[in-house]
Amino acid sequence: MKIGIFGGTFDPIHIGHIISVLEVKIAFGLDEVVFIPARQSPHKETMPTANKERTDMIKRAISGYEGFTMDTFELNREGKSFTYDTAKYLKAQYPDDELYFLMGTDQYENFDKWHNHDELIDIMNFIVMMRHSDDMEISAPFIRADQLVVEVSSTLVRTRIKEGLPYKHFLNEAVYEYIKENALYEA
What we know:
Elements: E1 2-8, H1 15-28, E2 32-37, H2 51-62, E3 68-70, H3 83-93, E4 98-104, H4 105-109, H5 117-123, E5 125-129, E6 143-145, H6 154-163, H7 173-182
Parallel strand pairs: 1-2, 1-4, 2-3, 4-5, 5-6
Helix pairs in contact: 2-7, 3-5
């Protein structure tokens, strides 16, 4: 099987995440995509929203999409989340499958700064998901994906909520309702 791995803080998960990942799943014939929420990104100093709230939103966002699952490996660990540790764990979970890590161009450009990045290439494949604004060459062994993109970010959603501006159109209906019910990101 071909397993896609999509990690992030998902704070909150939005339609841009879902659309891009679904398009890559289709284009590359992935059998499954595993969403892996990070406890704390090694590249960010601030802690994200509580784990339970983020996993609840992910469950709501991926519900109904065939082959979309979630694994909370990184949330169950202490400290920052390193892709290398997650890759070793996933290789043990899927020893006979091909793993494809889905990443953005920002991650691609900084890949040489990742923990044990040279060894990661031996564990899994890397698909770089392009944005409309991206104009760069992707070098092997990385694989370029020119999937459909909705230019939205979790930061934009949180900012809109804080400023009292419309944001519902950036989210799955169930995620929107969850954020409203729990008054997330208002402060």
